[in-house]
Amino acid sequence: MKIIADKNIPFLKGVAENYGTVEYLAGSDFTHDSIKDADVLIVRTVTHFDEKMLKGTNVKLICSATIGYDHIDTDYCDAHDIIWKNAPGCNSGSVQQYIVSSLITISRKKGFDLRDKTIGIVGVGNVGKKVAKACRLLGMKVLLNDPLRQAIENDNSFVSLETIQQEADIITFHTPLTKNGSYKTYHLADKDFFVSLRKKPIIINSARGGIIDTEAIKNAIKLGEISGAIIDCWEKEPTIDLEYMNSVDIATPHIAGYSADGKANATRMSLESIADFYQLSKEPISAIKEPEPINLLIDLATYPTSDNRVYDAILETYTPMGDFGRLIAAPDAFKQLRNEYPLRREYKAYAVVNASEDERILLKELGFR
Questions:
Q1: Could you tell me if 145 and 239 lie in one domain?
Q2: Which of 23, 51, 167, 237 is catalytic?
Q3: Catalytic-residue membership of 237
Q4: CB 218 within 8 A of CB 225
Q5: Do residue 82 and residue 139 come from a single domain?
Q6: Which residues does residue 2 pair with via DSSP β-bridges, in sequence order?
Q7: Is 254 a catalytic residue?
């Protein structure tokens, strides 16, 4: 078969060739003419696949190495027998790591204890569930909002968005971007949303830029309706609003899910979709291995005066401040910062020594070795 893949999908070269002839293109080079003879596409969110792109091509399967799939016209694909697959949950651990490190960073910056705070999680899928678990482990009160799951599961553990607006000190979004239907999330955080906030919460968006109305949140910051913001996803990426970027506490270039673990998972899942579709062996996929971090060992004895050595261990695996600094220094390089993202490993890549028993239990629950 002929496979055309985005050249910036990691861990793919040398493995995808087990399944066919592979051509690698930049995301911007995917055009109707360049893909017309392909059987399979392996893609990212940077390219939109709709009727104009797909009509008259040989494409039978689109594999998106991402959680999201709003860059695929799924209705057109379904109507024209083009199978599409995304990679749900592939980078959920990476986003959890980003959220936890960002919470620790902003709590230290603003001088509050996370254990005194209530976090509202809007969207409780693969990512939201992991964020909820981590926040509970850190001693936070957690409110869950997911009207779709609530309707399906009839679960009374969910709360309304209005409850989160009234009770949450921090609100984090983990929904897909949907512009129609009963559970529309486009501009979910609009002017009315911010006006209705009672506790001036910190807002976090590591899901999709369009969930938050840019003008509305800029105004909310100016009016003091919120007390801070951590923003990884932006409307109109890669051309982002610089006033917005410069007004938030932490700004990053849509990399919350960019750990090597998350990327490797997405590549594995895309190749597994090809193997399933064509009934081929999955054995070649085992060749995908994430590189080891430079320092595998985290020694808590190096933090003798720390108020919270668990926080320090977490921040050794990842701190958002490096990504923040790089984006602030070169916002025009948004795409480059994503394409050339440095190695980041999740907790499972690290072992911790010299931990107390309480620290050991908590770190193990978070996923450390």
A1: yes
A2: 237
A3: yes
A4: no
A5: no
A6: 21
A7: yes
Count of C-beta atoms within a 10 Å radius of residue 329:
9
Catalytic annotation on 162?
no
Residues 101, 70, single domain; the answer is: no
Give the closest residue to 217 by CA, choosing from 144, 327, 227. 227
Distances from the Cα of 78 to the Cαs of 22, 45, 60, 82, 200, in angstroms?
25, 19, 11, 6, 43
Q: Give yes or no: residues 20 and 76 share one domain.
A: yes
Structural domain boundaries, residue 37: 2-86+259-287
pTM: 0.92
Q: Which of residues 287, 305, 339 is at a domain's end?
A: 287
Tell the residue number behind the tokens 């430079």, with chain if given: 294
Q: Which of 44, 208, 309, 338 is catalytic?
A: 208
pLDDT tens, residue by residue, 243-296: 999 999 999 999 999 999 999 999 999 999 999 999 999 999 999 999 999 999
Residues listed for the chain: 369
Amino acid at 204: I
d(CA 144, CA 4): 40
Cβ atoms of 154 and 185 within 8 Å: the answer is no
